[in-house]
Design goal:
Length: about 270
């Protein structure tokens, strides 16, 4: 495994965990792998360690090339800066795909809570002209994720909003509030999504996932949504390592693996 940190313009960092070349039993090298860029939660105030390395290593073991984005937060969360960080990350991964053994047409974004808001923001706003200008990219579709994995996501700026997250990310953005209410921004070019939430989430109401799933379905975008009866907010990978052990809710991980294999084909891992 190769591991390194890449610093993006503006100071955000991208932690990479990459498989090195591996030969199969027939002596053939495993081909380019799918990749996932992971956005931890933290209400746009910080990035949560429990939603960084623990899921990163699970998805690395599945066979993906994994990147953890520590995007700009707090006073730097406004002005479209976190979304710029994610857009630059997906562009970088595609530009360096040969060097990093990545299939540029199989790049997913994954987020938890406010990190899921960030992932989905790029999913619905990948063609924003300001993002393209900042990233200096003419072919704007290169900023579009191929899939979204959204765990207990912050989605809406409406009735069921996680208000502090929306206030931080929307600050000085020059965008109307509806821009950040992602269920209102979905169209048929939004990437397919895997969502999960617990019904009694007291931090981010499950209605956030309801609203997004309904919007995706209406737009004809493939969506798989799993709702578990009980579990606190911020369960991450639902193991003792992150202090939220749950065999039931933890089923989201193999369910997501199955979904990714349906989208991307064999992942090449466990």
């Amino acid at each position: 495994m190769k591991s390194f940190v890449h610093t993006l313009p503006g100071g955000a960092t991208l932690q990479a965990y990459l498989h090195e070349e591996i030969c199969g039993s027939d002596g053939q090298l495993w081909g380019p792998r799918p990749a996932v860029i992971l956005c931890p939660g933290g209400g746009y105030a910080f990035t949560s360690p429990r939603e960084a390395d623990p899921p990163a290593f699970l998805f690395l073991n599945m066979g993906l090339q994994v990147f953890i984005l520590h995007y700009r937060v707090g006073e730097q969360a406004g002005k479209l800066q976190p979304m710029e960080d994610l857009a630059r990350s997906i562009l970088l991964v595609r530009e360096r795909c040969s060097e990093w053994e990545i299939d540029p047409d199989r790049v997913a974004v994954m987020g938890f809570s406010a990190g899921a808001h960030l992932a989905c923001s790029l999913g619905v706003h990948w063609d924003d002209e300001e993002l393209a200008r900042r990233c200096e990219v003419k072919e704007v579709r290169r900023l579009r994720p191929d899939a979204m994995i959204l765990a207990y996501p912050v989605i809406t700026a409406g009735t069921f909003a996680h208000r502090k997250s929306i206030e931080l990310v929307s600050a000085d953005s020059g965008r109307p509030q509806e821009y950040w209410s992602l269920e209102t921004q979905v169209n048929d070019q939004t990437p397919p999504a895997f969502l999960w939430h617990t019904m009694d989430d007291a931090g981010v109401p499950v209605e956030n996932s309801f609203l997004l799933a309904q919007a995706l379905h209406k737009a004809g975008v493939e969506c798989e949504c799993h709702l578990f009866p009980s579990g606190c907010h911020g369960m991450s990978v639902c193991t003792g390592e992150v202090y939220t052990p749950s065999a039931t809710v933890g089923m989201w991980v193999p369910l997501c693996k199955n979904w990714l294999e349906h989208r991307f084909g064999p992942l090449g891992g466990l």
